[in-house]
Amino acid sequence: MPAVREKIEPLAIVFDDDGLVPNNPMPFLVYKGAVAVDNAQPEETIEKLFGRNGWGDMWRNGVYDYLHYHSTVHEALGVARGHARVRFGGDGGRELEISAGDVAILPAGTGHQCLSASRDFCVIGAYPPGAKMQITRPTPENHARALKTIPRVELPKTDPVLGEHGGLVKSWKRG
Which of 7, 65, 112, 161 has the fewest CB atoms within 10 Å, i.e. is most exposed? Predict the structure, then answer.
């Protein structure tokens, strides 16, 4: 059975810079129910998918319950188990329910914070090759630094879900 559902398209949302969370002019993407995780090892299913598509430096955990962003790298969050309500885009962003099989792709600078989660909630985080992830809290000083860092973050060559032909490759462009 294939790991990825056929004919899926991501939901795309662009969040504005709010003065503390820079977000990104490239869209935040969410593939709802994209990955078949109805097996005994859903974490491995997502890890293999991300790895096949060139994303690595993976971890298993949840999403932090405080607002943060990453100014040095783009991030993929694949939900292996459970569900959570996560606010993306900072305090003025959008709350989304993400659940097993969903994949969120955050361009560098996208604020995110877990508001609530099921006990079994498990996310696989992954990054494209390049800089390492650093957690950044929203402060005026961090925001000023991030505005210089984010435009220098390399665009991924592949989408973590659909590879060379995915939504990220089609929709993430610069100037």
Answer: 7
Is the pLDDT at 142 greater than 60? The verdict is yes
Measured between alpha carbons, how far is 167 from 9 in angstroms, rounded to an integer? 7
Report the predicted TM-score, pTM, of the whole model to 2 decimal places: 0.96
What is the spatial distance between Cα 50 and Cα 40, in angstroms, rounded to a whole number?
A: 18
Instruction: State residue 100's pLDDT score.
Output: 98
What are the C-alpha distances in Å from 51 to residues 64, 92, 155? Answer: 23, 33, 17
Whether 126 and 115 have beta carbons less than 8 Å apart is answered as: no
Assigned token pair, 141: 């000083």
Q: What is the largest CA-CA distance in the chain?
A: 48
Structure tokens at 125: 């985080």
- 126-137 core/surface letters (b: 16 or more CB in 10 A; e: else): bbbeebebeebe
Burial 71-80 (b: 16+ CB within 10 A, else e): bbbbbbbbbb
| CA torsion, ordered 87, 160, 153, 17, to nearest 10 deg | -20
Closest CA to 27 of 165, 166, 132, 131: 166
Q: Are 167 and 10 in contact (CB under 8 A)?
A: yes
